[in-house]
Design a protein that fits this description.
This protein has 592 residues and is of the alpha/beta class. The protein has helices at residues 6-22, 52-57, 59-65, 100-112, 131-138, 201-216, 262-276, 306-310, 334-347, 366-369, 374-386, 414-419, 425-428, 474-478, 484-497, 499-503, and strands at 33-36, 69-72, 76-77, 89-93, 116-122, 150-151, 175-178, 183-186, 221-225, 244-246, 249-251, 297-300, 321-322, 355-357, 390-394, 505-508, 516-523, 526-533, 539-542, 547-552, 558-560, 570-573, 577-583. It is 26% helix and 17% strand. The strands form six sheets. The protein has an eight-stranded parallel β-sheet with strand order 13-12-9-5-2-1-15-14, with helices on one face. A five-stranded antiparallel β-sheet has the order 16-17-18-23-20. A three-stranded antiparallel β-sheet has the order 6-8-7, with no helix packed on it. The structure holds 1-deoxynojirimycin and calcium ion.
Length: 592
């Protein structure tokens, strides 16, 4: 291969090589994820609880929307104290969600439609009802005695916890007393979720067996719950009680010294190796692009700076993706957004991929974060689906479901019941970060009826239905070209039709007018300009040349082709609007 000399020649050469490699990028590079919370997605048998056959009934919604990958929150056998994040059998399905055959059927039906499927693996802890824990807690010398993290206590009779580690909820110790053993076990999240001891080889092997169990059944990968918390400090040293910020949330305790450890990165490598055993087996049977690509993927729920989290990729041998949660607590401010994009671009350069998330089953709905302003939610949807990185949409986000206020006294969420039953409602109702996760887990709204098409009429749903159902529902919004749902569909369609949007590079445009930001996605000759106005006033953003509109969040968005008073071709953006433009031909002067 000949290489032109000089810096320009070399960078052009590199660019050409990157372009060629992009053409061979793995399927997950252009993945778009839709998160289903099974208890609240669709109830197929009228018991008021969503289930696996229900998900199958509604799979076509994902196809209509235009996503290509389904992530299902846990549906494995569980006493449901944390609604499935407390597993008591990793290789079976909770009866209220169906049978093993229903999980197989879900994978099959998703693949038939060209959708990939990710399951949710809870590796950090099991339920306290898991037979392993029941055995482990029974004595100090049973065969599973070391499968969980047991320690002697401090002080007289060992009745003080072994160290000062707190639970994730921060206000109580992370240690729980085990009467039979007269010892403490670590439960980083809730007392009903004892942490597994991943330094025990039998635990590792047994958990890997469960991973293989689902890979054999054809699942395309996993979302990994609390992945950065799995391997603890082997010395169990006390930590400093030092206030800190994590993902935009103030914390009174700094967990970082025991999170995201090198051993945990090593675990990412081991899990990836397990997935690689299946690279040539089973997998998707759809005819969509990349159907031949069998790579199984891992996406970690991890917390820390982008720089810390990148380590989990282990130079291509670890997790393929890590969730970056900064946008769950976004500031609706172009400078803040720009800084995050720059950080993600620098930390996850191609062939790595950043990720973007605006909602999930744990955190306040997007619409509530923007004070109910749908125009702002539309701008953020445009960002989510046009930035370089894997986007995830949480069920109901696409129709603008808002938080359903549920008083603490009625909460089913164990976080509330365990840690905050004392919290006065007057305080709770004013908290910006909501404590009661029930508020974002109410039934998915398929139609405007009182049971929203989630279950049969007259059935009491496991959580109440939100009153916003009359407008925030799939049926009503499908018939309205200006609805949020129609916007999401248009954005997904543009993203999949234009390689520049799903695989292209991203360049932020310098010097755009106050309140705005813009970026160009490019792939070979194709160039797409995205401009967003997060400011209070309308703004004109230069396009650098002729362009055509692919998607606009507002009918008032307008292209101007240049005139005596406005010489540069530009796009006129009302306050809180965004546009996706296909640029005609190469031109480097965008935004100048
Ligand atoms: C994070 C999950 O997203 C959350 O829903 C769950 O309660 C905890 N991990 C514990 O597994
Ligand atoms: Ca049901």
């Amino acid at each position: 291969m000949t290489e032109r000399s000089g810096p320009t020649g070399r960078s052009e050469h590199r660019r050409a090589v990157v372009e060629r490699c992009r053409a061979m990028a793995p399927w997950w590079h252009s993945m778009t994820v839709y998160q289903v919370y099974p208890r609240s997605f669709m109830d197929s048998n009228g018991d008021g609880i969503g289930d696996l056959p229900g998900i199958v009934q509604r799979l076509d919604h994902l196809v209509d929307l235009g996503v290509d990958t389904l992530w299902v929150s846990p549906f494995f056998t569980s006493p449901q104290e944390d609604f499935g994040y407390d597993v008591s059998d990793y290789c079976d399905v909770a009866p209220e969600y169906g049978k093993l055959a229903d999980a197989d059927h879900l994978i099959e039906e998703a693949h038939r439609r060209g959708l990939r499927v990710l399951f949710d693996l809870v590796l950090n802890h099991t339920s306290h009802e898991h037979p392993w824990f029941v055995e482990s807690r029974s004595s100090r010398d049973n065969p599973k005695a070391d499968w969980y993290i047991w320690r002697d206590g401090r002080g007289p009779g060992g009745r003080k916890p072994p160290n000062n580690w707190r639970s994730v909820a921060e206000i109580t110790s992370g240690w729980q007393w085990g009467e039979e053993r007269q010892q403490w076990y670590l439960a980083s999240f809730l007392p009903c979720q004892p942490d597994l001891n991943w330094r025990n080889d039998e635990v590792r092997e047994e958990m890997f067996r469960s991973v293989r169990f689902w890979l054999e059944r054809g699942v395309d990968g996993f979302r990994l719950d609390m992945f950065g918390d799995i391997t603890k400090d082997p010395e169990f040293r006390d930590l400093n009680l030092r206030p800190t910020m994590v993902g935009g949330i103030p914390r009174i305790w700094d967990r970082s010294p025991i999170q995201n450890t090198d051993d945990n990165v090593e675990l990412a490598r081991e899990l990836r190796a397990v997935c690689r055993e299946f690279d040539d087996v089973g997998g998707p049977v759809g005819d969509g692009p990349g159907a031949a690509d069998r790579e199984r993927i891992l996406i970690g729920e991890v917390f820390g700076s982008a720089e810390q989290l990148r380590r989990f990729l282990a130079g291509g041998d670890g997790l393929q993706l890590v969730f970056l949660f900064d946008f769950l607590t976004f500031r609706y401010d172009p400078k803040w957004v720009r800084a995050r994009i720059e950080e993600f671009e620098q930390t996850f350069p191609w062939p790595a991929q950043p990720t973007y998330v605006l909602e999930n089953h744990d955190r306040t709905r997007l619409l509530d974060r923007v004070g109910g302003d749908v125009a702002k939610a539309r701008v953020l949807a445009t960002l989510l689906l046009t930035l370089r990185g894997v986007p995830t949409v949480y069920q109901g986000q696409e129709i603008g479901q808002s938080n359903t206020f549920i008083p603490l006294a009625d909460a089913k969420d164990p976080i509330v019941k365990t840690y905050f039953p004392w919290m006065p409602e007057a305080v709770n109702s004013r908290l910006k970060e909501r404590l009661n996760r029930d508020e974002v887990r109410t039934p998915m709204q398929w139609d405007p009826s009182p049971t929203v098409g989630f279950t049969e009429p007259g059935v009491t749903t496991w959580l109440p239905v939100n009153e916003d159902r009359r407008t925030a529902n799939v049926e009503t919004q499908s018939a309205d070209a200006d609805s949020l749902l129609s916007l999401y569909k248009a954005l997904f369609a543009a993203r999949s039709q234009h390689r520049a949007l799903h695989e292209g590079r991203l360049d932020l445009v310098p010097g755009t007018p106050k309140g705005t930001l813009a970026w160009v996605r490019s792939d070979g000759e194709e160039r797409v300009l995205v401009a967003a106005n997060l400011g209070r006033d309308a703004a004109l953003v230069p396009t650098g040349g002729p362009a055509s509109v692919l998607v606009a969040t507002d009918r008032a968005v307008q292209l101007t082709n240049g005139s005596a008073s406005l010489p540069a071709p530009s796009v006129w953006l009302p306050a809180n609007s965004a546009v996706v433009l296909l640029l005609d031909g190469p031109d480097d002067s965008v935004g100048a």
